[in-house]
Amino acid sequence: MYPRVPTNGADSHRLWPRQWGRLGWPAMEPRLSAPLSSMALPEGFRAAGIHCGLKPDGALDLGLLLAEQPVPATAIFTQNALQGAHIPVCREHLHRSNGMARAILVNSRNANCATGDAGIEDARSCCRELARRLGCAEEHVLMASTGVIGAPLPKAKIIDHLDSLLSNANAKGGMDFARAIMTTDTYPKAATACHQAIRVTGFAKGSGMIHPDMATMLGFLITEASSNGDLQEQLQAIADRSFHRTTVDGDTSPNDTLFALAGGTGKASTTECQTEMLSVATDLAMQLAADGEGATRLVTIQVRGANSEADACLVGRVIATSPLVKTAIAGRDPNWGRILSAAGRARVPFSTDQARVWIGDTEVFTKGVPQPHREDLASKYLKDSERVVIGIDLGAGDNQADIWTCDLTADYIRINADYRT
Fold first, then answer.
1. Are residues 313 and 279 in the same domain?
2. According to DSSP H, which parts of 331-400 are helical?
3. Among 5, 50, 74, 309, which one is least packed by beta carbons within 10 Å?
4. Which of 290, 315, 345 is at the close of a domain?
5. CA dist., res. 187 & res. 278, Å (int)
6. What average pLDDT does this structure show over 230-239?
């Protein structure tokens, strides 16, 4: 019942959490796994992650994705009116470079957001200093920041460690990069896939403040495929079918950014690799939902029988952000009425007399008729399954969508109540 991420070829890997840290869960069985110590990068790329003093106890907090030469690049940014300082800098650099980039510098634990003109100049300074060391144009360096909003960026710590960051960059540095960009994440998020020997690898970070209005808190897709067509249009289409279908808590981040770099050293084009790019993005989106703050269940919401795909996505997102639905799942309560009620307030026309609701394999509401005798089966499913599927058929058309979220527990409140204090 758990939906498989589409893949083409045997060389596809995802990283599911092996140790659940704050939650003390048993391990999830991965569908396809790679060792946590490594993640293959596309040819022509290097990565690194080091400690520069932003996080305590020596944790990695400064990351780098590096191409051997400037490559086609694009990004999608948050629609939040509040935006991190790196966003105008990236927009400016991508415009000046005609969509080319060589490096992406990422710091964690500080969002460099709501820091005014000084924050923007700090981001520019970090890009300028990295470009000087690389011997490339300043506009070929992009930057992203994530962490607490409102604190000045400790740019001196970042700049002082750029030489070390560059010396650590290598073809096997992907997992160090993935760890360096984490904030409240409990594990590094990475995935990779191959098409005609052309690799697509992705990284993401995010655990709370996840309800993408463009992508996710931070996401990165890299491939050595040659860029053809409109890379921005391709990335938007991928985001719409992956990251835009993930939510943890309904809050969009002011720093949301999804980057794509196409190295151009391979024979296949990005259009030919589109399925693998979507596979990697979907994999990462599901990992974000699985690692939601305080989560104990990854939840896939299946919406079927919609009049349009947009309607299906909207209904799914409303269900996925319903505190009543999410707390019912946390309590292992097969409360189908909350699912149906959430769908009903999405302002998508459908008749409840034609609707069906299911939890796992058990249909608990059928065309206007509750099925109370089946609720024990649904309750057992919620208790026994760490990957939960709930669904609704609207009976209004032939379109569908899956949305990924997690349950809502008291730990989410604790984590966010204590985030700064």
1. no
2. 336-344, 375-384
3. 309
4. 290
5. 22
6. 95
The CATH number of whichever domain residue 402 belongs to comes to: 3.10.20.340
For residue 370, which amino acid is it? P
Judgement on whether residues 173 and 319 belong to the same structural domain of the protein? no
User: Do the beta carbons of residue 161 and residue 129 sit within 8 Å?
Assistant: no
Among this protein's residues, is 366 annotated catalytic? Answer: no
First-to-last alpha carbon distance for the chain, in angstroms, is 41
CATH number of the domain where residue 118 is located: 3.60.70.12
Residues in the chain: 421
- Which of 216, 270, 300, 405 is labelled catalytic? 216
In this structure, the answer to whether residues 236 and 312 fall within a common structural domain is: no
Please say which residue of 290, 323, 341 terminates a domain: 290
37-69 CB burial, b ≥16 within 10 A, e <16: eebbbbebbbbbbbbbebbeeeebbbbbbbbee
262 and 146 part of one domain: yes
SS (H, E, C) 152-179: CCCHHHHHHCHHHHHHHCECCCHHHHHH
pLDDT confidence bin for 213, thresholds 50/70/90: low
Binning pLDDT at 50, 70 and 90, where does residue 267 land?
confident
Residues of the domain holding 327: 298-417
Residue pair 269/225 in contact (Cβ under 8 Å)? The answer is: yes
Prediction pTM value = 0.88
